[in-house]
């Protein structure tokens, strides 16, 4: 173990899944020095996937992540990091405190994109954190229609959850199918059919021209010439890596904080910054399947697995761990289990091997330059596992 | 020495992460139900621990060796 990390200890910025996972692995590997975690929310680490599902429409289920015994963490919650000084090896937080570190884990996640136009002050929501979910749930209980702006995974899940709780829902999506950028046309059409069969008002190839209401949201004018009256809106148009606090720090930031395949953060000159690692949604990192500047992923398993690598590389810089995963994610909508492995979004062709809307089953394989790079299935988890094994072999061969 | 593997099927939602991490221990049957070995050889520990950590609903538990088991008695 690197003895240089004792003293000022390790500072983890970000108190969510990736930050906590890094702490757990650091302790499992025997690190017994100071461990400080800064988080901008007042909450201890919690799990986000339930927030767009049952949590949104049911009672306040317990979403806290378990904290194993012996973590011995100095929590600094409700505090936002606002500047990193690599020379002084300190992070400044928003109450002016300077937190020193010997080793740094960057895990600040991502921030929901806001509606790009004028937005009523009340009733237009985003869904990223626990407090967002509680606010949206309260709004749904007041009754009225929910307008979902954006039919990516989050928007589709929110629509399905709200519909399941008896809320009338309209979804507006500029693309011709929901989730198209992630999984393509055929899978998107399958999801569209699910929404429409359930009775959700899905408007594809449509945009919201303006949101109406001052100060309280009452509806929206759409590009199809209609007006939708609604009691609440949720903006689900993606998220951006939370890197504002790294501006001017000397770290390379380009659509995420740039890492190598050991989860080590790179300086502007492209060399690894000493004892600085990162994990989760905030990172941009290289992958053999990804062209150009690499990937950013907002997946649950990416956060945990990259955090594992980050902790190992931080403690054992002479033998840094390698992060070269077969990515995976899931989405549950209308009782259908969607499972994705690999990187369907990078494909240049797709092969639909099963598409049975009545049985609610789907199996699509994705290829890039003739090689399998991903799969997306509905209610076909066994096949997903088989694809995953093939993808692991492909990746192993590609990486040599 | 074997370790015990337990999956809380009340929690399991067939995310498949345990199958991805340790396919020798966890798999899906013809009807897409998760099946797994009740005990696994010590040599599988790293993969099984990874499977437990990968489970999004924390349904996978790795127990201490079952002293009632004969060493090497894990199903193939």
Automatic annotation (TrEMBL), chain A:
Domain (Reductase C-terminal) ranges: 329-392
Q: Name one GO molecular function term.
A: oxidoreductase activity, acting on NAD(P)H
Q: Does the keyword Flavoprotein apply?
A: yes
Transmembrane portions of the chain: none
UniProt KW keywords: FAD, Flavoprotein, Oxidoreductase
**Superkingdom assignment:** Bacteria
Q: Where is the FAD/NAD(P)-binding domain?
A: 10-307
Query: Which InterPro entries does the entry link to?
Result: FAD-oxidoreductase/Apoptosis, FAD/NAD-bd_sf, FAD/NAD-binding_dom, FAD/NAD-linked_Rdtase_dimer_sf, Reductase_C
User: Which is one Pfam family of this protein?
Assistant: Reductase_C
Q: Which cofactor does it need?
A: FAD
Give an example GO cellular component term for this record: cytoplasm
Question: What PANTHER family does the annotation carry?
Answer: APOPTOSIS-INDUCING FACTOR 1, RIESKE DOMAIN-CONTAINING PROTEIN-RELATED
Task: Please report the name of this protein according to its UniProt entry.
Answer: FAD-dependent oxidoreductase
UniProt organism field: Actinophytocola xanthii
């Amino acid at each position: 173990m690197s003895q240089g990390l004792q003293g000022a200890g390790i500072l983890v910025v970000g108190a969510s899944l990736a930050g906590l996972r890094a702490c757990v692995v650091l302790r499992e590997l025997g690190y017994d020095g100071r461990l400080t975690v800064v988080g901008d929310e007042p909450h201890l680490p919690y799990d986000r996937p339930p927030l767009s599902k049952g949590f949104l429409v049911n009672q306040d289920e317990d979403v806290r992540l378990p904290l194993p015994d012996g973590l011995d963490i100095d929590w600094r919650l409700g505090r936002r990091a606002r500047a990193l000084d690599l020379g002084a090896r300190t992070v400044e937080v928003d109450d002016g405190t300077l937190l020193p570190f010997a080793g740094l884990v960057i895990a600040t996640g991502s921030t929901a994109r806001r509606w790009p136009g004028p937005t009523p002050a009340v009733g237009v929501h985003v869904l990223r954190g626990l407090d967002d979910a509680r606010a949206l749930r309260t709004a749904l209980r007041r009754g009225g229609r929910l307008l979902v702006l954006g039919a990516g995974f989050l928007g589709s899940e929110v629509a399905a959850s709200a519909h399941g709780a008896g809320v009338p829902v309209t979804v507006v999506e500029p693309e011709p199918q929901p989730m198209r950028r992630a999984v393509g046309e055929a899978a998107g059409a399958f999801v569209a059919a699910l929404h429409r069969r359930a009775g959700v008002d899905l408007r594809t190839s449509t945009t919201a021209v303006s949101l109406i209401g001052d100060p309280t949201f009452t509806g929206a004018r759409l590009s199809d010439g209609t007006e939708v009256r609604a009691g609440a809106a949720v903006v689900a148009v993606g998220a951006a890596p939370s890197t504002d606090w790294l501006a001017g720090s000397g770290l390379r930031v380009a659509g995420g904080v740039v890492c190598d395949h050991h989860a080590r953060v790179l300086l502007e000159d492209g060399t690894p910054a000493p004892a600085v690692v990162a994990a989760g949604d905030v990172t941009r990192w290289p992958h053999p399947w990804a062209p150009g500047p690499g990937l950013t992923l907002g997946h649950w398993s990416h956060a945990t697995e990259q955090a594992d690598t980050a902790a190992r590389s931080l403690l054992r810089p002479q033998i840094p761990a390698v992060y070269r995963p077969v990515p995976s994610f899931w989405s549950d909508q209308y009782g259908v289990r969607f499972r994705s492995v690999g990187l369907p979004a990078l494909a240049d062709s797709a092969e639909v091997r099963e598409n049975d809307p009545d049985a609610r089953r789907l199996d699509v394989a994705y290829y890039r330059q003739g090689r399998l790079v991903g799969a997306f299935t509905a209610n076909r988890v066994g096949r997903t596992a088989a694809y995953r094994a093939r993808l692991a072999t492909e990746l192993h061969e590609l990486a040599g | 020495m074997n370790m015990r593997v337990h999956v809380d099927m009340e929690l399991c939602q067939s995310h498949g992460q345990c199958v991805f991490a340790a396919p020798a221990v966890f798999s899906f049957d013809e009807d897409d139900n998760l099946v797994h070995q009740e005990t696994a050889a010590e040599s599988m520990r790293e993969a099984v621990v990874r499977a437990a950590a990968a489970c999004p609903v924390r349904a996978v538990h790795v127990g201490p060796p079952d002293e009632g088991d004969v060493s090497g008695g894990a199903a193939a």
